[in-house]
Amino acid sequence: MRVSDLVVEDLPAWVRGNERLYCTCIAGAISGQEYLDGLQAAGLTGVRILHHLVYDESQVTDLVASELGEMVAGTCCGGVGIGDAITRTAARELAGKVQSVVVVAEKPGV
Q1: How far is the CA of 76 from the CAs of 10, 18, 52, in angstroms?
Q2: Edge-to-edge, what's the strand order for the sheet holding 98-106?
Q3: For the chain, what is the mean pLDDT?
Q4: What string of H, E and C letters represents the secondary structure of the chain?
Q5: How far apart are CA 15 and CA 93, in angstroms?
Q6: pLDDT in tens, 64-76
Q7: Which of 60, 65, 76, 101 would you call most buried, defined as having the most Cβ atoms within 10 angstroms of its Cβ?
């Protein structure tokens, strides 16, 4: 198995409780270790993170803004600015806490 997903570390409580950020897959994401533990508990072996990319502030901004349908200056969408306090605050507080990962695992006996 090979899957790409988002994992997070140490999210502030306000993020976990924010339904708009839940829609971005950030607020509902689990930690990398919880992800691996869940796959192992399901019976998969050789479970590991093959690649990861830690999101910086600009990447979190782009992710949140794109998922919330906001226009972001300097992107392909040609927006005029962020204008949303949730996006700005999330980007500042979540930089370094959101990762895109590629996870690999095997099912025994297959």
Answers
A1: 31, 27, 24
A2: 2-8, 98-106, 45-54
A3: 86
A4: CEEEEEEECCCCHHHHCCHHHHCCCCCCCCCHHHHHHHHHHCCCEEEEEEEEEECCHHHHHHHHHHHCCCCCCCCCCCCCCCCCHHHHHHHHHHCCCEEEEEEEEECCCC
A5: 9
A6: 887 766 544 444 4
A7: 65
